[in-house]
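Service request form, structural biology core

Requester: graduate student, group of Dr. S.
Request type: structure prediction, single chain
Budget code: on file
Notes: please return the result as structure tokens.

Sequence provided:
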Amino acid sequence: MTNSVGAARAAFASEKRCADAAARSCGCGKPIGPKNQTGYCRSCCARAKFHAPGVRERRLESIRRNFADPAYRAAHAERLRIASSTPKAIAARRQRGREQYRDVLSRPDVLARTQSPDARQKRGASITEARLGWCPADRREEYRVLIMTKKIPAAEARRIIEAEIAGTLEHGRREIASNELAARLRHERQQREAY
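Core staff response, request fulfilled:
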């Protein structure tokens, strides 16, 4: 008798758990377990936490605080370098590149946009601005002549151009040297004319 009563109780409890579990579901329709206290499934709970006020700000603050530490930043960069240099990661990058070329970059409309004369000119201007942002636009051709034609090293050519730009340290030094030379020449000329 006790066995049948125990079996009946177990069956009843099992049916009740199944009924409770069937009755309990998240707002999205996914069933949730009987011990779930939030009333959300896992993905809805994560979404609700992410959109809760203040959560994003706290996460960003934590990220900023961590990356302000040079040791953490160096360790993070090293972890990324190691993770991205594995043969599997390299093969995955190559595969993504091939897919990108096959699916997007080789399309006629994309080629027409990226290889048009206007696009090339805009791309060239953008690269020039990035590399020669320190040099005024009217002096860039002079800088190119110094490097390409006269074969002057880039650092020396930059010093020469900066000496021509008003407001730079090199320009100030050049002006002072020029004024000193003019004063010395004027003084020598006056001494010659005095005799």
